Amino acid sequence: MSDNIKDCGGAVLDLQGGSYLLSSPLVVPQYWGNLRIIDGTLRAAPSFPAGSYVIQVGAGGCNPPSGQGSCNENVGMSGLTLDASHVAAGCLLITATMGATLDASSACFGFTQIGIHIAGGHETMVSETWVAAYFWDSPSKETNSATGVLIAGNDHFLTNVICFSSKIGVRLTGAANLLTNVHTWNAATGYGGVGIQNEMSQNRFGASYYLRQPESLRASDSRPVHSAYSWVLPRFQQPASYKRRADCFQRRLLPGQCASSLW
Amino acid sequence: MLAVLLALALASECAAYTHLRVPHAKLFPAGLRPATRAAHSRMMRTWSAPARPNAESPVVAPTAFGADPTGKADSSNAFGLALAALGVRVYPFVVADSAYLSHSRSAGALRPAPYV
What we know:
The complex is a heterodimer.
Chain A: E1 6-14, E2 19-22, E3 26-28, E4 32-44, E5 53-57, E6 72-83, E7 90-95, E8 97-98, E9 101-103, E10 106-109, E11 114-122, E12 125-132, E13 147-154, E14 157-164, E15 168-172, E16 178-185, E17 194-198, E18 204-206, E19 209-211, E20 215-219, E21 226-228, E22 231-233, H1 240-250
Chain B: H1 2-16, H2 24-27, H3 37-46, E1 59-60, H4 76-88, H5 98-103
């Protein structure tokens, strides 16, 4: 594999549908690749480190010879329920990894800071996944300060992902990421929640649906983003500056028409 | 003449793809073979890739290293051991039966349980 990443031969860590309690993170070490973690539940114990994630793939300080900035490759996770138990900072941290996936009816719950944190790397794909700091029957869904998904890197993909009951559904601080069929709702509606917070250029949002949050799309970067075929169902009256963006979605403009004119 | 040329072209095209044909036994391993021609046709129309990727990859079960699948006891150490085994590609709990590795991921009925 690239940059002498260890090839684990496609081996599978199969949780066999069990529910496991962890007092420390499950760490996929730096420079490991070609492995899977599948089918089960991992739950943070009360003694779990508050600043850690239930699963941590890779680590910082990645400086491979190629200069690509990825020290793990092809790490797949599917069919997982990750419960941070309102103890751990987050459920999944993917650092400096090329080609990680989280898919197949996975879910991330109970995080205090960030549900899924993609830090650096390239081409992580998250799909068929539900992310929520709190369940919908909890009063805390209105007041928490957590972020569902933080993409702090370039060229990552969110497809068919639902983010609810966090203050921010998806936050992007990297560029050239693609979000399609992303549904955000109950984004801490009593606390200034945001569906998608975009802080970088060249990100694209398609066919997404933003429901019941004060602000559906916040773009703090003035450079163009691309958004099309999306829809907003606001819960509250929105400020005029936000309404323009909502109009852009609701009119279902063709690709490109919302890109440079409004943001 | 045109019909002959078309027939030759079609035959050539088919021959070119012969190497891509998948043996029937490979498509439908033991226990999954259709009983009738109609069932076979139906399966061929609806067949797709195995639901799980890497269907023939070696499997590491954390329970084999002492993990508690009921979620009552702390399984952190067991997961550390399981992941270490995965990393060095040593699977002492997997029975020495290549059929297990071949089929356990693709056919649940053939999967030995429990692992330990």
